[in-house]
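Many introductory courses stop at the sequence. We go one step further.
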Amino acid sequence: MVNVDAGGGDRLALAVLAQYRMATTEQLHLLIAPGVRIEQTRRRLAKLRLEGLVDRVTLAQAGRTRVWFVTEYGAQVAAQLPELRDWQAPRLASDRTAVRLKTGHGLTVTEVGLAFVQDARRRGEVCRPLDWIPEVYHPLGSGEAVIPDALLYYRQGQGEEWSMLRAFVEVDRATMGPERLAAKIGAYARLHSYVPVPVARPRQPFMEPPEEPWRRRYPVFPRLLFILDNTGPTGIQNRAQALRAAARDTGVAGFLRAVPVLVAAMADLLRDGPAAPVWRPVQDLSRHVSWMHSRDT
């Protein structure tokens, strides 16, 4: 029989690289082919590069680490893949200079996605590489939007006993002030309650009242996860306290009752795994919970 999926590995590599924006050789290998030798992934990337679908930059300050990304042509091809239905390439995604300048944050976001994928594999649950979707646009009207660093889909449980979890993920590398970080809670609270203003016209008695746009995407509003990196324990605690202060605002009280908002240190997450109780509710930083059971004591 003819192997009709001979290019499946190449297609998955291209799709993951396009969706994640960037990845090192090792990150991509662990995402798409952890069961084989890394040389196979290196050969696959070299082939895709020869075909003009991907390119790389080399980080001299990081032991000459190679960072891969899709070219403009690669993005065009990726956009036609069934795995990336409705995906649109971000601006400058294929620009070498833009990629190089964004590697600090971009590779950290990829590393977090990889941590969730690996954790699901260890637990016998489902979080495939393409279940981590960076930079999903959620409009707020008047040209404003909420764009999380990533949207996570995770199927918890096995067999018939399972549930689908969703989370907005914000990865903070201490490149913005604590107040700007904390303000993101308010932005998500606005998204939770935002209803577009309808075009002025006579209201018909049978018309449904307008609803929040997020309800057309998600059966429940995704939980909100903050991951803090690139600073010591004191810096982590200071930024967590800023999130705690934002949670005291009466304007977000209803949002926080409806949506779990959790914070974790990147080092703890990578050491113990995302499913471990490394998360703290922003309302009570003395508690440690699992992101999947965030109401637990």
